[in-house]
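Lab notebook, bench 4. Still working through the backlog of constructs that have no structural model yet. Next entry is a single chain of 308 residues. Request: give me the structure tokens for it.
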Amino acid sequence: MFNSSVQKLAGKTVYLHIGIGKTGTSAIQVTLSNDSDSLLQRGYCYPKAGRPGVGHHNLAKLRCDIVPDDIQDTFYQVAGEFHESGTDCMVLSSEYFCFLESGYIRWISELFSLSNVKVVFYIRDHVDLILSTFLQWVKVGDDYKGDIVNFFNAYKAAFDYETRLRPWIDFFGEDSIILKLYDKKFSQDIGSHFYNSIGLNDFKSPTILKSNPSLLPEFFDIISAVDKISIEKKTRQEIVDKLLLNSKKFKKCSTLELIDPELKSTIYNTYNSSNERIANEYLTTDEKIVFLKEDIQKKRSIFTRFFG
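Model written out:
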């Protein structure tokens, strides 16, 4: 099956959207799923195989260096569906892809060895990413370590973009990387922004409303208090659902900052060097200025020079 799948994929273009989570991934996947029939007419296949819902999460097995047999079979189903579609381009999307082990990615690269592979990776301001991810974990009940300081200290390696990209660069090459900045200045309509990234510049799609609602920082203490007592998961979910409704209602009124200036400085300093390297390599000048906040840094430098 492996060799025949490699041949089915030969000469085709494959876009692997690998994340990172909290950069509009859910909205992108909803858009791709909703547009799958229209995409076929444009020569792009968004396979149903490997998708338990809108994303190809069944193709990603975390903390596993070898691709399990059942997931290999799912990849072969993907290859078959792509081949039968008669299209020249395929898109696979899961935010879990960027956390795959090196050996796992090596196997994927071998499967797509005769294909033209492009790896699409979205990044965003690290403070915003870590806050958004923390609140997501609080919302769904994952181990958020009690507060955002402990959360950052426990998981900071996971948020290093260069680390997430490195094995994909190693196996697919630097030229395969399409790095995009998730920022309102560039991606207010994330679906259209993604389509532009994969060569569908004139493809129009209905705007997708926020598909993964966020929890307001103001409600963290409530859920934290709930998690310190013993309640059923169903009851916790009911509380979370009500808080999400109020989060949507009072979003414009939100002023609480869970990340204080000291932690904010620590976060920026932690990733500054690696961010500069990938930004200089892959981002446009305008994206780089926004991502690295070079304009703010220059203003601070001028202020310091003249006013001490």
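Notes after review: Strands lie at 13-17, 44-45, 89-93, 116-123, 177-181. The radius of gyration is 21 Å. Flag for follow-up if needed.
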